[in-house]
Write a structure and sequence with these properties.
Number of strands: 3
Strand content: 5-15%
Strand order of the largest sheet: 1-2-3
Shape: globular
Number of helices: 7
């Protein structure tokens, strides 16, 4: 991997995130990054809703912009962990992606302090992490009332999920059946869309 070519995707959303990060005071950015890195290492909740409101007021940003900053910072640390970057190399990659020198220095400092703990947490997540989806099937369930079709009950959908290890060559080890009502299914897909939006923001589009 070349140290002169940034590992961070040059997308419009990530560029927008960099623009927001470049406007954050370096001293405050250091505190934000320390909390985020600690959260990655401990799998704890990084900021409470009250703290996020305070951050919005301090940074003079919207809830969406704050989420963009936090997600982008998390993404940077995760990429640094997956690529096993040294602090100096991380700083060069961030500068190459368009981050201001002062802000890149805050990532350098925090990664130097918390990088080892984050790396250990990411390795544990990879080696002993959850199973992944290997196969899926679905079936529409229609239940009739006592008087036939005129008393049709609310339909539901059954999903059969085949789970296995993260290894691409692994086969299905376990099958789980989940039932959704129409309302539950709508809520589930709303959550999936929000996840997709975050992935797009982080450059996984």
């Amino acid at each position: 991997m070349s140290e002169h070519k940034s590992i961070f995707a040059s997308t419009s959303t990530f560029s927008a995130a960099l623009g927001l990060i470049n406007d954050v005071d370096p001293a405050l950015m250091t505190k934000l990054l320390s909390r985020i890195a600690t959260g990655l290492a401990t799998k704890g909740k990084v900021f409470t809703e009250e703290e996020q409101l305070q951050l919005r007021e301090l940074l003079h940003v919207s809830a969406q912009d704050l989420r963009t900053v936090l997600d982008a910072a998390t993404y940077v640390f995760e990429q640094a962990g997956y690529h096993s970057l040294k602090p100096d190399v991380l700083r060069r990659h961030l500068a190459g992606a368009g981050m201001a020198e002062a802000q890149a220095e805050t990532f350098h400092a925090v990664w130097g302090t918390h990088g080892t703990a984050v790396l250990e947490a990411l390795r544990a997540r990879t080696l002993g992490g959850p199973q992944v989806l290997r196969d899926s099937k679905w079936q529409l369930q229609l239940q009739l009332g006592q008087r036939g079709i005129t008393k049709l009950k609310e339909p539901s959908v059954l999903f059969e999920l085949g789970l296995g290890d993260a290894d691409p060559s692994a086969s299905v080890k376990e099958k789980v059946t989940v039932e959704f009502s129409h309302r539950e299914l709508s809520s589930f897909f709303d959550s999936i869309e929000r996840i997709q939006e975050q992935l797009d923001t982080l450059g996984y589009a």
